Amino acid sequence: MNIPQGKNIYFASDNHLGAPTKEASRPREQKFVAWLDEIKQDAAAIFLIGDLFDFWFEYKTVVPKGFTRILGKLAEISDSGIPIYFFVGNHDLWMDGYFEEELNIPVYHEPQEFIFNDTTFFIGHGDGLGPGDKGYKRMKKVFTNPFSKWLFRWLHPDLGVKLAQYLSVKNKLISGDEDAAFLGEDKEWLVQYSKRKLEDKHRDYFVFGHRHLPMEIDLGNNAKYINLGDWINYYTYGIFDGKEMHLKTY
Fold it and tell me: Into how many domains does the chain fold?
């Protein structure tokens, strides 16, 4: 994609809408919709890098109730011709066609590479990447297994969604202590993952979410790791103006 002069590409992640309750998350949803309404004026594209919802599961004919404001704004922006790209996170990984069919938004389940103005981006939510975290990686295989999803669909949505929302909030993935502080480059596993990817091929930017902590780290050789933070505590987002990418706060 060539970015027209005066246009930008925007990145955001980890809104966790619906948590800890729909009522408590409503102001955050309204704030994010206001941000989308502002950036649509000069957006060449928008990337949502996972965990937009604290829980999302698509039954064959049912999706979770609520989120009218955010879904309506995404539909408006998409219909206006501004491309939106959605990457599933570990809380909303059960996307299964709804965004593509209703909003014309492509959904990615694995990291992808994009080139903007000859600048290469490696983009993904970030869960399950890099060394360690073997317990989560095993759990993710269970959650994404077609048979597991088929079994879950047999639960009535009123029961299935309520149970999943309870477990999602209880597991402290929104604001656990492990997300509160920078661990150092040698312990930040997404930094280590990015450095290993550079051994195979150069990329200018590695852009992830999941960590909930805004970070910009120089990887050497004109490469940079960026974690987008979240829209719970930091309200940070990434912006690429065609030449450089930086984090900003809304």
Answer: 1
Decide: 189 and 157 in contact? Cβ < 8 Å: no
pLDDT tier for residue 177 given thresholds of 50, 70 and 90: very low
If you average pLDDT over each of 14-28, 125-139, 163-177, 230-244, which comes out highest? 230-244
Judged by average pLDDT, the poorest of 100-109, 139-148, 197-206 is 139-148
Distance (Å, whole) CA 182 – CA 75: 36
Helix (H, G, I), strand (E, B) or coil at 64: coil
- For the entire predicted model, the pTM comes to 0.88
Query: Taking each helix axis from N to C terminus, what angle separates 134-144 and 146-153, rounded to the nearest 10 degrees?
Result: 60
Phi, psi of 175 (to 5 degrees): -140, 40
Q: How far is CA 224 from CA 47, 124, 126, 219, 227, in A?
A: 18, 14, 15, 5, 10
- List helix spans (H) across the chain: 22-39, 68-79, 98, 134-144, 146-153, 157-170, 189-200
93: domain CATH number is: 3.60.21.10
pLDDT reading at 142 higher than 50: yes
Give the whole-angstrom CA distance, residue 6 versus residue 53.
31
Assign 84 to helix, strand or coil: strand
Domain region containing 153? 8-249
Asked if residue 20 has a cis previous peptide bond (ω within 30° of 0), the answer is: yes
Over residues 42-61, the mean pLDDT reads: 91
